[in-house]
From TrEMBL:
One of its GO terms (molecular function) is 8-oxo-7,8-dihydroguanine DNA N-glycosylase activity. The gene is mutM. Gene3D superfamilies: 1.10.8.50, MutM-like, N-terminal (3.20.190.10). Involved in base excision repair of DNA damaged by oxidation or by mutagenic agents. Acts as DNA glycosylase that recognizes and removes damaged bases. Has a preference for oxidized purines, such as 7,8-dihydro-8-oxoguanine (8-oxoG). Has AP (apurinic/apyrimidinic) lyase activity and introduces nicks in the DNA strand. Cleaves the DNA backbone by beta-delta elimination to generate a single-strand break at the site of the removed base with both 3'- and 5'-phosphates. The keyword Nucleotidyltransferase does not apply. This is Formamidopyrimidine-DNA glycosylase.
Length: 292
DNA sequence: ACTTGACCCTGACAGC
DNA sequence: TGCTGTCAGGGTCAAG
């Protein structure tokens, strides 16, 4: 589920509870997610204070005291929720998938005790501990591309990265070393907003001289805009959602093309039909009429 | 060097 | 009701 905007929304939802909090106890209900949990994980985190919450691409960064960063990736099905710690809640009704509550942070903040629960049915998520001062050496970060909303992403950069590539745009934009944080949904959405076909060969957006064509400049703008919009939507959904059940990360978005196979294209005046194709094993949704 | 495909795992859903 | 097949928002690795 979580692409960059969702992870950012999770970060913002967790911040009031976790930033500045003391982790009294880290409860582990299994030894591994996608990878083994860190060596002596509970011992290393318990008793430490959380300095701040950060994010890099789709990675949530829980910054602990003593130069330690807990790196959390939510995979496809990871989510966090916040629960009050109620005295005598031994008989509290457990939600139906609590069997996938793998890691529980028992935190204390201003005398208030709460649980931050990581749930992940498919266990494609993972957690690592890394020295904050050496975070750039974390293998997944070493090759990571720029953030889509950061200054490092511009049309000139993309022209350098896409020049000469025969790879279809869909695959190039999913490549985390090109842009960090885009996933299947927002690549589809950005291409639709740019009127560009996901099958278009990446190098054709660059002039022979290596300059970005106008459509690449447009694409760059739309990538930024679709992420900014989604983060804003996540922020508004947080306010409604967090108070009801404490869950973060599964708010409902509405997309323009993603998961709309067979529906009328929403581009004004287009009149086409959204089509689903498979590219490198994953679904792509686009409108063949207005995306060229 | 680049690109694709199989794989990790569980749950939801459609069709029989 | 239950079975089976298909699909899912991610990343990694091997093989083409």
């Amino acid at each position: 589920m979580p692409e960059l905007p969702e992870v950012e929304t999770v970060r913002r939802g967790l911040a009031p509870v976790m930033e500045g909090a003391l982790v009294n106890r880290l409860e582990l209900n299994r030894a591994d997610l996608r990878f083994p949990l860190p060596e002596a994980f509970a011992e290393k985190v318990s008793g430490r204070r959380i300095v701040s919450l950060g994010r890099r691409a789709k990675y949530l960064l829980i910054e602990l005291e003593d130069d330690l960063t807990l790196i959390s990736h939510l995979g496809m099905s990871g989510s966090f929720r916040i629960e009050e710690t109620v005295q005598g809640d031994f008989h509290h009704a457990r939600s139906k998938d609590s069997k996938h509550d793998h890691v529980i942070f028992h935190v204390e903040h201003d005398g208030k005790h709460q649980k931050v629960i990581y749930n992940d049915p498919r266990r494609f998520g993972f957690m690592h501990l890394w020295k904050r001062s050496e975070l750039d050496l974390y293998p997944a970060f070493a090759e990571l591309g720029p953030e889509p909303t950061g200054n490092a992403l511009d049309a000139d950069y993309l022209a350098r990265r896409l020049s000469g590539k025969s790879q279809p745009l869909k695959g190039a934009l999913l490549d985390q070393t090109v842009i960090a944080g885009l996933g299947n949904i927002y690549v589809c959405e950005a291409l639709w907003r740019s009127h560009l076909s996901p099958k278009r060969q990446s190098g054709t957006l660059v002039t022979p001289g290596g300059r970005p064509k106008k459509e690449l400049t447009r694409l760059t703008e739309e990538i930024r805009a679709v992420i900014v919009d989604a983060i804003a939507a996540g922020g508004s959904s947080l306010r409604d959602h967090i108070q009801t059940d404490g869950s973060l990360g599964y708010f409902q978005h509405s997309f323009s093309v993603y998961d709309r196979e067979g529906e009328a294209c929403r581009m004004p005046g287009c009149g086409g039909t959204v089509t689903r194709i498979t590219q490198s094993g994953r679904s792509t949704f686009y409108c063949p009429t207005c995306q060229k």
